[in-house]
């Protein structure tokens, strides 16, 4: 017989044990106990977590030890390279690549008030990213409001999918702080069956994420991909950063410290710690009544001379000076290699702005260019910061470079890579300084030549704007250009002409002579007239005649670099009577605008132009020669040609007795447009070869008299 009391006690014990197990399994870490460990509210930070959590530099200007661009008459001084602003922190391991993502349109953000970075409390950790716009000193960048960032999952070191949770996105405030408050980063003490106890991580503890930009504020654009690596081994990489190896409650993880830092040289993890965006490129000046203030920024790195292109760079730069003559413009010169200027002597110094037109100023500027030498790496950042520091901003800043940036203001030694490697931090730095230039209203045009062509245009776009020049488009609409060294001179001249509110038209005369296999330069003496409709004004407003160069040139001038409408240009060739008599006729016309062929005909040479256009037309005339000959026959009362001088003409129709010997003359004239060779006269009333002529060749318009004698039948 069973004991009911005993069964009740057994069931009660089981119930109590189950309750105890349940209680221990749900006790939070702050209240849990363990035989071997005292209760703790959260795990104590490791050494990595004990890194200093100092606030980033203030957004206001920090005094700079870098000289500004010199004024007229000054000799620019050069301080030593500044020390780095902080000791680099540990960087992440090399990250994997990801697939391309399309660019994003700028959006107008809601106003985000400046606020301190949120505290990491409870089970939360904070990841905060500093977002920057314009450089304000060598060591600080002004915060940029309105940039939206999102956390993506990590897929074995590569970028995964975007997280949809509200805590996984942030928008930067006016201080440039964009912070993610990540929940469930704690751990708890869990026991099972009273025996099996241990720490259990919450879902996001020590999880790694990727920070990716979703949108940019109005007037700014994101650079989704940048070119990193070396000149011979580079690639387009996603601009995104993987967070650090730790993510724990109560801790704040800052860009520049635990991630996005320069602790170890790595092309895709190195960063200044400040997220970059590109400021919109300003348009050129509204009015063209005054000349342009131009800054020419030249890459004098060693690779320029290594490629044998230093002479080409100098010639193209001097050609730009010549193209600005007569426009009341001025030009300043800036150089860069490891730093800017490349040196403090004439072979690399920066030169202040000088008016081009007065006296021999143009030759002075060109002699300064001729004195330049090369050597070292590539520092876009320092060069653009030098330009930004000028007291009187420029209208146009033209940057000519043959590669990618390998140095920055705070890294002018780059010992780890010998100045041959580009990572994200050098590009970020250059973007901040270029933004500072554009913030003053200067338009930046970046020109990549040589290796600057092969490496892609993303980096050039990052310091200028997103519009690449394409053949046939107006040069004033482009932000960056990629060209071979052999194209540089024409390109820079066109940039200067376009920036000074004009379109240039060149007519090249060719002639295809009768019987020639191919056209030749037409030489002097060919006349053209041209007209241009409003809003353009033609110069010179008259007929022009070719000289020894076989060309004539016109300009169409506008009052603004972006006229509301195009100007219709018509061209007409005016042949002289002599040219017409010689058989010349317009045969073919080919015109190209900005290198792109357009449709024109010999009967109607016309096209539309706007400021910045370059038009080149080739007009070919062909010589058409039609042969012609006339013969006038007369009879004379002399038995031989020797008696013609005193002989009387026998009028046509008069009767002459049969058997009378007379002499006939034949006046032969070349009435055509071409010489006649092998001329013979045959009279069907006389034996063959009876008619004798003094020669067998007649030029156009030339005559000769042939004769024959015989009996009248």
TrEMBL record:
Signal sequence interval, chain numbering: 1-32
CDD domains with a match to the protein in the record: vWFA (cd00198)
Compositional bias annotation for Low complexity: 35-48
Annotated Basic and acidic residues bias: 75-104
Keyword Cell wall biogenesis/degradation: no
Source superkingdom: Bacteria
InterPro entries, A to Z: DUF7507, VWF_A, vWFA_dom_sf
Keywords: Signal
SMART domains: VWA (SM00327)
PROSITE patterns reported in the protein's UniProt record: VWFA
Protein name: VWFA domain-containing protein
Organism taxonomic ancestry: Bacteria, Bacillati, Actinomycetota, Actinomycetes, Micrococcales
């Amino acid at each position: 017989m069973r004991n009911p009391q005993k069964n009740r006690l057994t069931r009660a014990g089981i119930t109590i044990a189950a309750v105890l197990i349940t209680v221990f399994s749900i006790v939070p870490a702050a209240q849990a106990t363990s035989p071997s460990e005292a209760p703790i509210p959260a795990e104590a930070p490791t050494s990595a977590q004990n890194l200093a959590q100092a606030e980033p530099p203030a957004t206001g200007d920090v005094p700079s030890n870098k000289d500004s661009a010199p004024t007229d008459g000054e000799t620019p001084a050069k301080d030593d390279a500044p020390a780095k602003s902080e000791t680099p922190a540990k960087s992440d391991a090399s990250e994997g690549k990801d697939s391309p993502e399309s660019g994003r349109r700028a959006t107008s953000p809601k106003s985000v008030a400046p606020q301190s970075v949120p505290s990491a409390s409870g089970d939360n950790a904070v990841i905060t990213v500093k977002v920057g716009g314009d450089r304000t000193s060598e060591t600080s960048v002004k915060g940029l409001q309105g940039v939206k960032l999102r956390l993506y999952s990590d897929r074995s070191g590569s970028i995964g999918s975007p997280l949809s949770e509200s805590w996984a996105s942030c928008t930067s405030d006016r201080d440039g702080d964009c912070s993610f408050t990540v929940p469930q980063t704690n751990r708890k003490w869990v026991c099972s069956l009273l025996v099996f106890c241990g720490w259990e991580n919450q879902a996001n503890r020590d999880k790694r994420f990727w920070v990716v930009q979703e949108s940019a504020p109005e007037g700014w654009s994101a650079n989704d991909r940048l070119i990193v690596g070396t000149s011979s081994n580079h690639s387009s990489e996603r601009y995104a950063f993987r967070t650090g190896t730790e993510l724990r409650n109560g801790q704040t993880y800052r860009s520049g410290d635990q991630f996005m830092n320069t602790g170890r040289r790595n092309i895709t993890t190195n960063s200044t710690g400040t997220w970059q965006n590109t400021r919109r490129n300003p348009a050129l000046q509204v009015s063209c009544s005054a000349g342009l203030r131009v800054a020419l920024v030249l890459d004098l790195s060693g690779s320029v001379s290594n490629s044998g292109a230093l002479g080409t760079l100098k010639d193209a730069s001097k050609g730009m000076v010549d193209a600005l003559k007569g426009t009341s413009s001025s030009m300043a010169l800036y150089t860069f290699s490891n730093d800017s200027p490349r040196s403090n002597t004439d072979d690399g110094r920066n030169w202040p702005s000088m008016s081009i037109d007065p006296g021999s100023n143009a030759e002075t500027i060109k002699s300064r260019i001729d004195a330049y030498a090369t050597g070292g790496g590539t520092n876009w950042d320092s060069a653009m910061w030098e330009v930004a520091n000028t007291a009187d901003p420029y209208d146009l800043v033209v940057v000519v470079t043959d590669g990618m940036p390998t140095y920055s203001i705070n890294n002018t030694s780059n010992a780890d890579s010998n100045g041959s490697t580009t990572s994200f931090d050098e590009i970020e730095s250059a973007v901040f300084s270029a933004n500072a230039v554009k913030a003053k209203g200067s338009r930046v045009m970046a020109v990549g030549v040589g290796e600057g062509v092969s490496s892609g245009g993303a980096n050039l776009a990052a310091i200028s704007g997103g519009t690449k020049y394409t053949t046939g488009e107006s040069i004033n609409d482009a932000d960056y250009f990629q060209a071979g060294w052999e194209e540089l001179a024409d390109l820079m001249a066109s940039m200067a002409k376009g920036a000074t509110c004009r379109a240039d038209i060149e007519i090249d005369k060719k002639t295809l002579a009768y019987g020639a296999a191919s056209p030749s330069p037409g030489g002097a003496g060919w006349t053209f007239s041209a007209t241009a409709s409003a809003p353009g004004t033609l110069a010179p407003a008259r007929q022009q005649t070719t000289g020894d160069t076989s060309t004539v040139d016109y300009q169409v001038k506008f009052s603004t670099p972006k006229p509301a409408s195009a100007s219709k240009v018509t061209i007409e060739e005016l042949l002289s009577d002599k040219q017409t008599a010689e058989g010349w006729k317009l045969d073919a016309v080919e015109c190209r605008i900005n290198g792109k062929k357009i449709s024109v005909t010999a009967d109607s040479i016309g096209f539309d132009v706007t400021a910045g256009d370059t038009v080149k037309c080739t007009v070919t005339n062909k010589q058409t020669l039609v042969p012609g000959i006339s013969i006038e026959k007369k009879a004379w009362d002399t038995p031989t040609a020797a008696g013609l001088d005193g002989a009387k003409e026998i009028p046509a129709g008069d009767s002459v007795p049969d058997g009378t010997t007379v002499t006939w003359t034949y006046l032969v004239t070349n009435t055509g447009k071409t010489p006649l060779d092998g001329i013979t006269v045959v009279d069907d009333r006389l034996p063959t070869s009876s008619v004798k002529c003094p020669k067998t060749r007649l030029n156009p318009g030339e005559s000769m008299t042939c004769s024959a004698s015989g009996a009248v039948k």
